[in-house]
Amino acid sequence: MELAYIPSPSTGVIHLGPIPLRGYAFCIIIGVFVAVWLGNRRWVARGGKPGTVADIAVWAVPFGLVGGRLYHVITDYQLYFGEGRNWVDAFKIWEGGLGIWGAIALGAVGAWIGCRLRGIPLPAWADALAPGIALAQAFGRWGNWFNQELYGRATDLPWAVKISEGPNRVAGTYHPTFLYESLWCIGVAALVIWADRRFKLGHGRAFALYVAAYCVGRSWIEYMRVDEAHHILGLRLNVWTSIVVFVLAVVYLVLSAKLRPGREEIVEPDRGPAAGDAKTPIDAADAKDAEAKGEAGDKAPSLIKAEDAPKDTAPKDAEPKDAGRADAESAPGTASETASEAKKV
């Protein structure tokens, strides 16, 4: 007898006239806004400029969505290219299907491009955004609830999610793995924020901690799911991915702490003064060169004239050097005459 359970929405889309409003998309959008908001606060607290996180997210988010979809389609290709399937469905992202591994990998490429354009280090930006990404996943997982997908094994627990009859699913109550992962991601965000304040994580270590902590939770949550997936040595593909990525994240944490201890002192260097302020070093150097050239141009004619002028340019009727002495002796009011007159008086 079902005493309690989490009901599923009757539909995952609401039509506003001809425009469909899908719950899955809303969950992703809300997650992105939360990640950018929190990331901006952390970036400014570390000495960065407001708006930088959003500027780089313009690159990271589209790349992440494409990467997440590619990972899902490649690892679950049978859902789109198998017998009786329509390959066009691979482009219907609103029906669900984003792999976090592909989203992080290709999203990092977009973030790298944005960071290069702004002249800031990617690891510092990733550290600021790490807990926000975890919260974005926490919100995004509720999109699975709207689509009634990615649930766990059947259970009669009070917090089981009730799934209705539909394509590729059987009605019943199941473990709400979307809820488990959402709560786990909130815990990961709190862990990263605490550890970053406590240990002053830098050079990408806060992001590595987020990756490692998320992989731990994803491993046991993935093991509970019953949706179709590829298996290797009895484990689901995403479980193996979690193990490999966890090891890589831990290795990075250890090596980074030894090779680059501490935290970046400057995360966003000054891009130069605004218009009307002091000149930038490049402008100052150009102005100095121009000034030097101007001075050289002014002095050049006088130097040429002095070198080309003949030595005997003095006038022929110039007075000899002794003329000045004769005039001085014959001039009235000399010093000797003044002294004799002073004695007479």
Which features does this protein show?
two-stranded antiparallel ribbon; 6 strands; mainly alpha; globular; disordered C terminus; 345 residues; 12 helices
Textual characterization of the structure:
This protein has 345 residues and is mainly alpha-helical. The chain contains 12 helices and 6 strands. The protein has helices at 23-45, 52-75, 78-81, 100-118, 122-140, 142-147, 177-199, 205-224, 237-259, 281-308, 322-330, 335-344; strands at 13-16, 19-22, 161-163, 172-174, 231-232, 235-236. Strand 3 and strand 4 form a beta hairpin. The protein starts with 12 loop residues before the first strand and ends with a helix.
Number of helices: 12
Order of helices and strands: EEHHHHHHEEHHEEHHHH
Gross morphology is globular
Instruction: Give the helix proportion (percent range).
Output: 55-70%
Gyration radius from CA atoms, angstroms: 39 Å
Biggest sheet: strands side by side, in what order? 1-2
Mean residue pLDDT? 82
Could you give a short account of the major beta sheet?
Answer: 2 strands, antiparallel
Strand content bin: 5-15%
Low-confidence stretches: 273-285, 299-345
Multimer state: single chain
